[in-house]
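Run RNA polymerase subunit sigma-24 through structure prediction, thanks.
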Amino acid sequence: MKNISTNSPVEELRLWRKFITGDRLAFQELIVSNYRPLVQYGTRFCRDQPFIEDVIQDLFVYLWEHKEDLSDTPANVRNYLFKAFRNRILFDLKQQQRFTDLPEMDDEGGELLVPCVQDTLLHIEANTEVSQQISGLMAQLPERQREALFLKYYQDCEIQEIADIMGINRQSVSNHLQKAMTFLRHHWKKSFITPLITYLFSSLVL
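Sure, done. The structure for RNA polymerase subunit sigma-24 is below.
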């Protein structure tokens, strides 16, 4: 599954370097390119889209106001923004006591949120029965497993990138993905397993 950002990592770095020198057009393009992925990532933690959008706006305002202090060469601009956004939204949710399933909680704790990666998976197969089954199963995955799947298959992140964004080690990422894969393999009906599981997990390197 491809990253929905319209810019390549190289182009994002070019825009970043221009942005920290005060280039407003480059900054606007960074916002446009990354806004939708950040909104969708925010649904990992909160259903309130206006709140998510407020956090994103606050993040970009902060970046503009502190641009002189920012590194001119983050390893990956998208991942840098994801990590900064993750830290900010979790802090704001905790401050407002609106959080549902923060990463510090046990994988089995907290309220389950239906992830946006589910919406992407549904495009793979138009069959209504398959779509309904995927929807129900994805909703049953623990928060961190769903977050790892979102980053892996919706944002096309590597294992190390996911670890950096989520603030965990590579082995933990692999464990989350492996547990999710095992759950889906076990629960999907036999007739659906071959085309979907093969497609989804053939590129998974643990």
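The two ends are 18 Å apart (CA to CA).
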